[in-house]
Amino acid sequence: VIAKKTTAKAPDSVRAGETAYRTLFDKAPIGIVVADAAGRIHDVNETACRVLGYTKEELAALTVWDITHPDDRSAFTILWGEVVERRRAGYSIEKRYLRKDGSAVWVTITTTPMTGPDGGFLYGIGMFQDISDRIRQEQRMRKAEGEIRKDHEELSHVTRVATMSELASSLAHEINQPLTAILSNAQAALRFLKAARPDLEEIRDTLKDIVSEDQRAAKVIKELRDLMKKEEPHLEPLNMSRVIEQVLLFLRSDCIIRGVTVISDLSADLPPVYGSRVQLQQVIINLINNACEAMKDAVPAEKMLTIRALKKDPKNIVVEIADCGQGLKKGMTEKIFEPFFTTKLKGLGMGLAISRSIIAAHGGTLTAFNNPDKGATVSFTLPAEGAKP
Amino acid sequence: VTTGNQSTVYIVDDDAPVRKGLCRLVGSAGYRAKSFSCAREFLESPAAAGPACLVLDICMPGMDGLELQETINSLESRSMPIIFMTGHGNVPASVKAMKAGAIDFLSKPFNDHEILSAISAAIQKDDKTREKRARTSDIKERLDALTPREKEVMRWVAAGMLNKQVAGKLGIAEKTIKVHRGRVMRKMKVQSFAELVRIAQEAGLGPRGS
User: Fold this and answer.
1) pTM score
2) ipTM surpassing 0.90
């Protein structure tokens, strides 16, 4: 590309051609760096000088390693070596150069070798474009996304904790039951031991029951802790029937206190869905709560809540929670999903909005409609694992 | 403490492990324990012969504890002292239960001596009630054997009137009163005048009674 000493002897036509190429080289909108096998910079164009903040002379004294960001040097060394040894025809990568002022500049660079008549390596020619703007924008977007996710998680955690505290007395009941069984059994065993000839078989059975009741209490506490925990949503394959059963473990007493009979129809062979157990449980707790609330003024015999989980089609499952309350007023089927919309005296009005966003994040949809006979149904779909959301 | 093998403790709780544990504890104190998962199941079971009490969870699906209390209080055949249990302190419910005659209101979990002393008190109360009820029905049976005239003679005699006074009041001969009085003593199976007065009082047979 550059032949300094020969210009004087060359004919005009050749000189004109070289000038044209030199202009093309310098004025090209991409940066060009030419380096020898050792990486010493042999030539650069004006665009490269402008992007890197050096003069041509300064760059002529440097190697390509000197202008490569320290974090990218080892990857560059491998690729460069392969091109020099002719094991690689060239490469295109995104990397960071280091400017004269020490700042980094993101570039996308394509490097090809220039070979001699014998096919041996002469120079490596790197052609690059400054992509700092694009990278910066991407980083901004990623950060914004992260913040949105964080806000979402924060808000869903807050509402989750609020929901759980409303259920506190019901939860106390769920823990008191096993504690009652444990204490009665333990004290019965102590009394059995006072007998002249204690019935060891009976005492063994009693101890076994104590163990299983202790595990039952521990399970309630573990489930509770999982729900209250604040952490990045952990995604895993889930059987929604199991997820609902776990929720009903908490809500059983709450529904009894509210006088609501829960009928569950959970399919035994649901395909797994991929999602966050805690978040989906939060949605179900929320929907059951709403359904109970909707039946607050219903006559006792009509306070029935039906929860169903079934396969909708080969690619989706559906979960439905139906109440026998007043049903939704005209125009409310969408309004109820708006943030801060509430018909209750207490509550943030965030429950359904968050539930819908959680379901959407799982690739499903959450909708509400009135039942043909009485009350309303809130239903959500989730894609079965394997089916692309 | 052992009120005998005849006493039955009914346990109604919707939680199976709790029922099992309570049956063991109650059994270890020498009572016969019978447990049921809901109010309906309990009401449909045959009543035991001896003294009994009911250990009842206040919060159950279907008919709750307070409703069951109301139901059995209205059925003389099933009426018995009740000890309530609750998994979460519910003050209004406990007040209502105690007002309706509950023996005790225990918060789960509770110690053996708490429930066993409540059961002991409940069984004693039921024992007395049954005894009284049996005696009342016995007296009623005897009273039913009296003729209206004999019943009238008994009422005035028991009120402390002399034979002569009763004769004057009823407008019949004193001799006839004596005959009636002898029959009353025999039919009421009493040996003395004092005993007759006591039975008349127990039967609510006062001077102004029917």
Assistant:
1) 0.57
2) no
